[in-house]
Amino acid sequence: MKKISYLLIVLSMLFMIAGCKKPPIEETIVPEEITISGDTLIDVGESTPFTATVLPTGVAQDVLWSTSEKKIASVNAEGLVKGVKIGTITLRATCATDPLVFAEVTVEVSVAKLTGSRSLKLGEVLQFEINDFVTIGNTANWISSDATIATVSNTGVVEALAIGEATITATLVEDPSIVLVYPIRVTNPDLASFDTYLDQLFLDMLGTDPMNINFTLYDPETYGLADCVVEAYTFSEEDEAEYFQELKDMKTALEAFNDVDLSEEQILDKKVLVDYLNHQIAYEGYYYYGSNLGSYLGYQAQLPIILAEYRFDDLTDIENYFDYIEVTQNTFSEIVKFEKEKAALGMGLTDVIIDRVIEQCDDFINAEECYLIPVFNSKIEELTFLDETQKTNLIAENVTLVNTQFVAAYIQLKTELLTMKGQNTGTGALASYEKGAQYYEVLFQDEIGTHLTIPQAKAFLTTTLNRLMLSYQNNYSDYQKYTKYTDLMGDMKIDGIIPHLLEKMASDFPSLGFTPNYEIKEIHESLKDHSSPAMYFQSPLDDDRGESIYINPNEFTIENNYMYQTIAHEGCPGHLYQHVYLKNTDLPLVRKNLNATGYAEGWTTYIENFILKYNSYSNNATAQKAFEFDDSISYVILGLADIGINYDGWTLEELGTYLEEYFSLTPEELEDIYYDMTEIPTNYLQYYFSYYQVQLLKSNFKEAMGSEYTDYQFHKVYLETGPTSFTILAEVFDQYAEDYGEQ
User: Are the beta carbons of 186 and 159 closer than 8 angstroms?
Assistant: First the structure.
């Protein structure tokens, strides 16, 4: 894509944490690991033996067996597992002499189900099967609803004869009340052209900017992206028009593929991508309504951290890094030019926001040492493809470039901003501009991933707020007790949170298949006053080499409840887990690389509350509701305030009238809230409106699945669908419930 879209990609990046497992220090042979063997798919009423082997050879083999959910499957002391009801459990074998040594496997308990493929290619022949039974046989009478589309033999062999749809039905001979239905689609056998187009679409959306490529791919050479050139970012209405035309061309190309010729998975790919493009195309005509400057999410605020994370795989990467430092001044000049054009139209930055950005620049300029210098030095020292002379020369070159050109760019930006003060005497709220309310709705629908209008969203939030406040009033003493005097951390330290959660979440979330490698970093002193509390830095899509979480020391002076929930949000089962899981799905790269803020932030805000079950309050519904209330209530109120300011056009005084019903604020605090929302419209809504959309999905899915519902299923479907809008997620969940829910 054109360079104009790059800053939007940069500003959407997240951040995170890491640690290592200490090896045991023993002088004698001790248990180190356990392997479990057994059939992980069993039927209701069936008993299946599991065995555990404790390694290394020679240690005691005694283990203790346990199941995550006895109502789904029980296990006795010998490892005999019995299926009780439909669902999924985690079976654990724990070393009897060392409870820290254990192994787990996921066991699925099911009843009769028909398995095959929902999408067959023309001419394909496929065996459909019924799950094994203990109490009844698997002999069935098979029939196809349309034998001209597909036939089925008396043993369940399906042959696809013509393009179209049919339904395969198997009625069990020994129990005719059990009728298994499986809808199929016969498609054109030549689907390669669609997949080839998706590969090209990934490259088109990725563009040729080396920084964007560096953060998206470890091995860009595989995709023909080895020799891209660094340029300063430019802004013009001509570039904007070309960008939107590219989006429209992409949409036209996708829609040219006929659904009849596509597989079920490809139809979903097409739907997700067209929906995404529609949200982006909706921004056309609002060229001057956004901004790349801001006190902590602005381009200039994030750039130092982004450069610190720039990966050096070869000498070209280092040269590109130097090029970015050299073009920073030109990029800032382009940003300033754009902001001055906005100011001439009466839409420039307000003095409050200008002062905030200047303060951020001052902190960076006046730092005793720019932290890019020690970060660069440590990275260079670890590179094995450089000799000592090269390292010395590169370190010296970095010092010169950072201290002259890079810091000079921030000095220039500050100087330019000072000349712009006083040009916008309004509030800066979007609603104060001609098409501001319409732009706000486009922004809201894109960031959340919804087709709801702002009036509909406002009604939803108002209903949510009233429900929360009523619950608070009815449970006031309990809510006060749990939120004010309860410590979720206990003796746990920050580096123990993710290991704790990885252990606890195993039965509720699909496994990654490995323990992710991650690192916890602290935001530098010169940036901490203008950075988020914590950030997960999204890793490249084509490997699992390492993850980064940044922690702002200003926000975490003590380890408390906020720390526990925040690390879950940024780590596991939050952003880090969600992204690593996505990378390892079979989704096309173009879908893995979509920026769906509501999908990501709604999930991680949901996680903040879900993980309360992993401590002593797991069976205390009142405590969990209290924590959810404490986590959400302020942001639901502020979400409505955001709409009031940027859509309805509230003044500072009107905001004060609204908020005084809930908070006791000083005039300075009130003004900070007001300008926070003019600086980053929809910010709170991205988290908490999206959170309640996740909760709504879960509630509807639970009702539709009936007795077959599990949290594991909900999480798996959400994660495997991948980044998309809640509109499409709802359709996917509805289809899953129709296929697999309680009949």
Answer: no
C-alpha distances in Å from residue 118, one per residue of 130, 158, 188, 603, 705: 15, 11, 14, 28, 20
Cβ-based neighbour number of residue 221 at 10 Å:
12
DSSP 37: E
Token pair recorded at residue 135:
């109490």
Residue intervals of the chain classified under CATH 2.60.40.1080 are 33-110, 123-187
CA distance 509 to 117: 25
Q: What residue type is assigned to position 707 of the chain?
A: S
pLDDT in the model for residue 13: 35
Q: Could you give phi then psi for residue 181, rounded to 5 degrees?
A: -120, 135
Q: What is the CATH number of domain 123-187?
A: 2.60.40.1080
Question: In 171-210, which positions are buried (b, 16+ CB within 10 angstroms) versus exposed (e)?
Answer: ebeeeeebebebebbbbeeebeebeebbeebbeebbbebb
pLDDT, tens only, 100-146: 788 999 888 776 677 787 778 788 899 998 865 434 456 889 999 99
Side chain identity, residue 227: D
The more confident residue out of 188 and 685 is 685
pLDDT tens digits, 260-314: 888 889 999 999 999 999 999 999 999 999 999 988 788 998 899 899 989 999 9
- pLDDT 10s digits, 186-206: 876 666 689 889 999 999 999
Element (H, E) at 458: helix 454-474
User: Cα separation of 713 and 705, whole Å?
Assistant: 10
| Class of residue 666 by CB neighbours under 10 A (exposed 0-12, middle 13-18, buried 19+) | exposed
Sorted by sequence, the CB contacts under 8 Å of residue 633 that are 6+ apart come out as 465, 468, 469, 472
Identify the three-state secondary structure at position 101.
coil
From residue 176, how far is each of 136, 141, 284, 741 by CA, in Å?
11, 9, 58, 20
Please choose, from the candidates 211, 575, 559, 531, the residue with its C-alpha nearest in 3D space to the C-alpha of residue 371: 531
Angle at 93 between CA 91 and CA 99, to 5 degrees: 130
Given the candidates 2.60.40.1080, 3.40.50.300, 3.30.70.1270, 3.40.1280.10, the CATH classification of the domain at 33-110 is 2.60.40.1080
Percent of the chain at pLDDT > 70 equals 90
For the chain, give me the number of helices (H) and strands (E)?
A: 25, 21
Cis previous bond, 56, omega within 30 = yes
Q: What is the DSSP letter of 70?
A: T
Percentage helix, strand, coil for the chain under 3-state DSSP, each rounded to 5: 50, 15, 35
Least confident of 12-26, 41-55, 605-619, 650-664: 12-26
CA distance 610 to 601: 14
The interaxial angle of helices 726-740 and 683-705, nearest 10 deg, is 10
Question: Could you give the CA distance from residue 88 to residue 510 in angstroms, rounded to a whole number?
Answer: 11
Strand partners, 106: 90
